[in-house]
Write a structure and sequence with these properties.
two-stranded antiparallel sheet, 4 strands, 4 helices, two-stranded antiparallel ribbon, mainly alpha, 8% strand
């Protein structure tokens, strides 16, 4: 059993996965998220500080929801967060398209090498046979 203290209220709870907050605080946070989402839909040209003030939520929490791609903004929206690799402004996620492509390109040699190491399909003649006793 994995027992932890909630980072929001301090209560002890049985931790399974995700953020280290108790079920009650998680439910409250989901309600706040829905309020923020509704506010953003109704007010398309506001920034993170305005959302934070209107919905009484920390700007860091709004940025976390953007990084998790729970909040996604249109290209013409003034809201943006920096790419974790190069720092250019993005609308959702952790990396810009250019950095995602670079990261993906880095995985290609690994995938090809693993394919080469896989055993090749053997012919019918190469199978092991057992003799009856």
């Amino acid at each position: 059993m994995n027992v932890r203290n909630c980072r929001k209220c301090g209560k002890i709870f049985n931790y399974a996965v995700g953020p280290i907050i108790c079920p009650n605080c998680r439910e409250k946070m989901e309600e706040v998220f829905q309020d923020v989402k509704k506010f953003v839909q109704d007010n398309k040209n506001v920034g993170i500080p305005e959302i934070s003030e209107a919905c009484e939520v920390e700007p860091a929490q709004i940025q976390q929801w953007i990084r998790e791609e729970r909040l996604v903004f249109a290209d013409d929206s003034p809201i943006g967060i920096p790419c974790e690799s190069c720092g250019c402004m993005i609308k959702a996620g952790r990396y810009c398209d250019k950095c995602k492509a670079e990261i993906t390109k880095g995985f290609n040699p690994t995938v090809k090498r693993e394919e080469a190491l896989r055993p090749q399909k053997q012919s019918e003649r190469a199978k092991m046979r057992f003799l009856d006793k």
